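The following block was generated as part of the benchmark described in Methods. Ligand: magnesium ion.
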Amino acid sequence: MALTDGASLLNLLDEMQNKKRFQELNWSGTFNDYLDVVTNNPRITRNSFQRLYDMIMSYGTEEFEDAKKKLIRYKFFSDPSFDSDDAIFGLEIPLMRLVNFFKAAAQGYGTEKRVLLLHGPVGSSKSTIVRRLKRGLEHYSHTDEGAMYTFSWFMGNLPEDGQLPDPSKIVGVREGLEPEWEPCPMHEEPLHLVPPEMREQFLARFNDGRSPEEHVTITGDLCPACRYHYRELMRRYDGDYTQMIRHIRVRRLIFSEQDRVGIGTFQPKDEKNQDSTELTGDINYRKIAIYGSDSDPRAFNFDGEFNIANRGIIEFIEMLKLDVAFLYDLLGASQEHKIKSKKFAQTDIDEVIIGHTNEPEYRRLENNEFMEALKDRTVRIDVPYITKLKDEIKIYERDFNGKKVPVHIAPHTLEIAAMWAVLSRLEEPKKANLTYLQKLKLYDGKSLPGFTEDNVKELRKEAQREGMEGISPRYVQDKISNALVKFQENGYINPFMVLNELESGLKNHALITSDEERLHYRDLLSVVKEEYTEIVKNEVQRAISADEEGIKRLCANYIDNVKAYTQREKVVNKFTGQAEEPDERLMRSIEKKIEIPDSRKDDFRREIMNYIGALAIEGKTFDYTTNERLHKALELKLFEDQKDSIKLTSLVSQVVDQDTQEKIDVVKARLVKNFGYNEQSATDVLNYVASIFARGDTTE
Ligand SMILES: Nc1ncnc2c1ncn2[C@@H]1O[C@H](COP(=O)(O)OP(=O)(O)OP(=O)(O)O)[C@@H](O)[C@H]1O
Ligand SMILES: [Mg+2]
């Protein structure tokens, strides 16, 4: 294909652009037009909590059971259709609490008057959750379902025909540069333009005959700037509302954090330097000169974080670092849904207020008196670390996958790192004989002999603070990155490289407070190393015995013998042609691999023959892969037979004869093809497993 040129690229952009969509998003109309829109779709007047809740629900839910507990997964948090880098995995219970908070607030049950505070250990995804909610709202505002509107004032004289120019066509209107146009600085709901004394009758008429879900309410009054324009125009038209309202141009409101529309973020700087103007806006000194007074709303920028986040969401990063005076502002804002800008009366706001703080910070203030006031007015939701291995692995697979890193990551590398992180978060199992690793497996949905789902439920219940301490995903992410950088030249990393990074970082980990803790984390590193060893031993065994022909031959041989045995016949030796007794040693050596005792061998053999017989009646032949136990037994036996012929252990001695080398290459190729290794990582693993076998440490 020819290289692209500028013209063809431009062409591509032209094809991709969606003019209809653009027009929809840039819709604008008169107040009258807007009333028509509301009549057709009253839901566009939802408040910020309702909109946020509906946004989350629009992605759907799924129910599932975990340790006998019914849980709901809100797909929004992990939906791959947008911002997949900020997907949240696991954490179903805290997310359910979060969504329930929004649900209650959407229905006006009182939580809308509380500050929502996400609280948890460092790196537990508090910021990510809020970021995702913000991005979700931005997205939603682009959809038909999430459409909402606001307005601008035209303060000039109306043209002869009374037709207002379309402000969306005028450059600078939204930025407030076009002097005759005054956009509402807080992008209010246009229904605020219905004067308070007329609302009751207006709504009675509007809601008449509509179902309760379609009922419209109007909450809050115009902001100080709009009140000013309203009064000005009413004066101009001698109190004629109809004339006044012709100066209004309604338009679609699209959220954008970048443009500071509907999405706000407040991050406290150092304590002495906090200034309320950042939250509620500031005097525009240049304009005071024009308008002559600092209480003229035209000389004030209503561009504090609370102002611009109106209709959407405002995030308070490290909320507890806020100056106390600010905190009371914040609590007032959530309780009354009002803010106060300098020199102006209280202003109504409609926005979701969500803060977060980490556990150390929270604990630092635990005994502070203002915390009492705070606790009373906030709903705290604990966001712990993940305690389910599967979910933790997803974090690292998202961050370090083939698309993002050019370096090969050996199989199990991320899994082992995740395993260590999760282990570090588990509370010591109270049950005797249960190890940390076993607990982890139970949580991960594996079954262990002697443990029921009820036990797992109990385990979860007895560990109240589980997940609130331990190693954060951020620490693990950093160490994996380090390993990737360090071994870039090698072209790959393996679990040992990452484990070494994880270990060496422990020395100066800022959040580890005691030697005891450090020791515990080191112990857990040994635990995961052992587990890794088991995993790869198993894998190499499987790779060695993944010789299909070999298994088939072994299987045929076994079946011949079993058949002869059950029918009390002899087996014909293929080489000598002689009839011989069934080979008991061969049969037992296979059966022992899956722990079939002598006393049960007859049953087992008969079962297999019955099965084969039943198949034969249907005209089918037996395939060992359909019998899981037999399959495993055959694999293990084949491995045992081949282990010595492959002389894996000779790898350690570095002198390998050609025959062995060929066999090893076959195994290596299988590791690459079936298990996701590359040449180097497969070599590593073979060497490692060989060294273990060399130590005489053979497994079943
Ligand atoms: N449950 C999870 N699902 C997906 N990613 C997670 C999860 N928990 C943590 N992470 C990842 O861990 C990293 C840290 O998350 P984040 O910055 O949101 O934490 P935080 O709770 O805000 O931390 P801090 O208290 O230090 O501000 C991010 O890369 C995030 O994606
Ligand atoms: Mg954070």
